[in-house]
Write a structure and sequence with these properties.
The protein is mainly α. The protein is built from 11 helices and 2 strands. The protein has a two-stranded antiparallel ribbon. A hairpin with a 3-residue loop joins strand 1 and strand 2. It is globular.
Length: 243
C-alpha cells in the first residue's frame, strides 16, 4: 500500500460555482465594475440552488473579488480604488518606481509564460487570441487597449494553473492599470508603440501554442524589457508608481 495515497473527495458544488466565477474574473471576462447576473439567473444558468450561489458569492466577497450591494446586486470589485492593494503600501513606503515594479514583473511573468507553454489548454489559447484581437480593435477605434493588454497577461497567468501566480498577477495588474494609469497613457499614445506591443503579444502566444517554454520565456522578457526601457528614458520611470 502506498502511504502517499489519500481518498478522493468529491468537490462541493458551491466550490465549483466559486471557481467558475473566479476564473471569469481572473481571465478578465468579468471586468471591474461589471454587474454580475442576479442570483436567479445564476441558479438557472448553472443548474444549482440559491444557497449554493450565495455561498459561492460570499466566498468571492471574502476574497475581495466582488462587492455585494444591498438592493443593487453583486459587482466585480472596482480596481480604481487601490488603497487596500498591498503593492500600494510597499511602493509608497520604499519610494519605489515603475521600473522597480517592472523588474519584479520580469521574473513573475517570464516564468508564467514558460509555465503556460507547458500547461495551457485550447480554451486558454483561444482566450489569448481573443485578447489580442480585441486589443487590435480597440487601437483601430482610437482607444489605448490597456484593458485588453491586461486581459492578455491575465490569461497567461490563468493558463499556468498556479493559484499563487494568478493572485500575484492580479495584484500587479490591479495596481499597474489603475494605480499608474496616467503614466501608461504616455506609453500607449504612440501608434507605433502599440503596434510593437501587439507584435510582441503575438510572439509570446506563438511560443505558448508551440509548447516552447524557452521561447515563451524569452518573448515575455523582450516584451517587459521594451516597456521598462521606455519608463527608464522618461520622467515617469523616476517617479513613485502611484497617483
Amino acid at each position: 500500500m502506498n502511504n502517499h495515497l489519500a481518498p478522493i473527495k468529491p468537490k462541493r458544488i458551491a466550490d465549483q460555482v466559486f471557481e467558475q466565477i473566479r476564473d471569469l474574473i481572473f481571465r478578465g471576462d468579468l471586468k471591474p465594475g461589471d454587474r454580475m447576473m442576479p442570483e436567479r439567473e445564476l441558479m438557472k444558468e448553472m443548474g444549482v440552488s440559491r444557497n449554493t450561489v450565495r455561498e459561492a458569492l460570499n466566498k468571492l466577497a471574502a476574497m475581495g473579488l466582488v462587492d455585494q450591494r444591498q438592493g443593487q446586486g453583486t459587482f466585480v470589485r472596482e480596481l480604481g480604488s487601490i488603497r487596500n492593494n498591498p503593492i500600494m503600501g510597499l511602493m509608497a513606503s520604499h519610494n519605489a518606481t515603475i521600473t522597480d515594479l517592472l523588474e519584479v514583473r520580469m521574473g513573475l511573468e517570464c516564468n508564467g509564460a514558460a509555465l503556460a507553454a507547458e500547461k495551457a489548454t485550447l480554451e486558454d489559447i483561444r482566450t489569448m487570441e481573443k485578447s489580442i484581437a480585441t486589443m487590435e480593435e480597440a487601437i483601430q477605434e482610437g482607444r489605448r487597449g490597456t484593458d485588453e493588454d491586461a486581459h492578455f497577461h491575465m490569461a497567461i497567468a490563468h493558463a499556468t494553473r498556479n493559484p499563487l501566480q494568478v493572485h500575484m498577477m492580479k495584484l500587479f495588474y490591479d495596481f499597474i492599470f489603475f494605480g499608474i494609469n496616467e503614466s501608461l497613457k504616455h506609453f500607449f499614445d504612440m501608434p507605433t508603440r502599440t503596434e510593437e506591443i501587439l507584435a510582441q503579444h503575438r510572439q509570446i502566444l506563438s511560443a505558448i501554442e508551440k509548447r516552447d517554454s524557452g521561447n515563451a520565456y524569452a518573448a515575455m522578457a523582450e516584451h517587459i524589457l521594451y516597456i521598462k526601457q521606455f519608463f527608464e528614458n522618461t520622467r515617469e520611470g523616476n517617479m513613485p508608481a502611484m497617483r
